[in-house]
From TrEMBL:
Belongs to the short-chain dehydrogenases/reductases (SDR) family. It is found in: Endoplasmic reticulum. The keyword Flavoprotein does not apply. Its main location: endoplasmic reticulum. SUPFAM superfamilies: NAD(P)-binding Rossmann-fold domains. This is Short chain dehydrogenase reductase. Gene3D superfamilies: NAD(P)-binding Rossmann-like Domain. The chain crosses the membrane at residues 12-33. It comes from the Eukaryota. One of its GO terms (molecular function) is oxidoreductase activity. GO terms for biological process: secondary metabolite biosynthetic process. One of its GO terms (cellular component) is endoplasmic reticulum.
Length: 309
């Protein structure tokens, strides 16, 4: 029988124990933030009549946030690009939650100019305490970078980065005045750096780093604003028409779960438990192998979308 030297087996035992501890620590850390209760109520204490602004609120996860925030007693500014759709969604919300107030803000984020500063006037004196930077998306199916047009690249950056950055800049003083305040930025698993969605992927990488930078800035400047980035996996939405399952939540479930993460030790956290478990792969699997698995999943997704189309 093969005999290993004693110090080799001892070393293996230590490596095994260290790996088990590391995995246990990773799992426990992830699970903890999903069982503690949300700190969201501190942004809408009794008698304050607080407002939240949700960007990209006419569909998908954004409309999910509008519903979830209304259910938790917030008045909601719904932002979108299509006035009729905004009015329709506003009516739906008012019918579902008659005691809350809603207002709409029409602004196409792809055509952003300096006029975006007028959003401050649209907020007016409303005690805004929550900003959900949700608007975003990929603007094209999986496509190699050289095949993308100038306009597609420019618009993807405006949709995912430019508007979010400008709105955050404009609203920090308002959130501080009404403090404590919350800024929640919606990121994506794509920030890992994925092929064929390179521009979107890079934009979400910006969202992650911007979230961390602004969170630090709020702390060192002593502003009472929590900044939390939510990492999101596959979610059924307007642009991602997949079937709902345990790993693919509906937009409303995703929004509810993200709001339950408020108060977590961020600045970046997974919003939904099954996504957090899937995210362990990013920690444990070597990048080259993981990219091969991701490419396979993206191929399956593309075929699925093609069938639906
Ligand atoms: N769904 C997923 O699997 C997934 C995964 C990871 C991250 N995310 C992130 O989650 C966020 C929401 O995604 P989603 O899937 O819920 O998207 P969605 O269903 O396509 O909804 C996007 C929302 O943004 C609005 N919007 C789009 N372009 C706009 C523009 N130019 N100006 C103003 N509003 C605009 C849409 O308005 P209209 O109703 O007029 O179209 C809609 O309200 C994004 O940041 C996305 O990157 C999603």
């Amino acid at each position: 029988m093969l005999q290993f030297p004693e110090n080799f087996t001892t070393a293996l035992t230590y490596i095994g124990a260290a790996t088990t501890c590391y995995l246990g620590f990773q799992l426990a850390g992830r699970a903890y933030w999903f069982i503690r209760s949300s700190s969201l109520p501190r942004y809408n204490p009794p008698g304050k009549d607080s407002w939240a602004l949700v960007t990209g609120a006419t569909d998908g996860i954004g409309f999910g946030f509008a519903q979830a925030l209304s259910r938790r007693g917030f008045n909601v500014f719904l932002h979108g690009r299509n006035r009729e759709k905004l009015l329709r969604r506003q009516q739906e919300l008012q019918a579902q939650f008659p005691s809350i107030k809603t207002k709409i803000i029409v602004y196409d984020v792809i055509d952003i100019t300096e006029e975006v500063d007028n959003i401050v006037q649209e907020i007016g004196d409303a005690p805004l305490t929550v900003l959900i930077n949700n608007v975003g998306g990929s603007l094209s199916d999986f496509q190699k970078l050289p095949d993308k047009s100038y306009t597609n690249v420019r618009d993807t950056i405006s949709l995912n980065i430019t508007f979010m950055t400008q709105v955050t800049r404009l609203l920090i003083p308002i959130l501080e005045k009404n403090g404590p305040g919350l800024i929640m930025n919606i990121s994506s698993v794509a920030s890992y750096g994925m092929p064929w969605v390179s521009v979107y992927s890079g934009c979400k990488g910006y969202v992650d780093t911007f979230t961390k930078a602004v969170a630090s800035e709020m702390k060192v400047d002593g502003r009472p604003i929590e900044v939390l980035g939510i990492c999101v996996g596959n979610v059924q939405s307007q642009t991602n028409a997949i079937d709902v399952s345990w790993t693919n939540p509906s937009s409303l479930s995703m929004a509810e779960s993200a709001l339950n993460r408020v108060g977590s030790k961020g600045p970046m956290v997974w919003g939904y438990l099954p996504h957090a478990l899937q995210g362990l792969g990013f920690v444990l699997i070597p990048r080259d192998i993981l990219i091969m698995l991701i490419v396979k999943t993206m191929g399956d997704l593309e075929q699925d979308w093609a069938k639906r189309r």
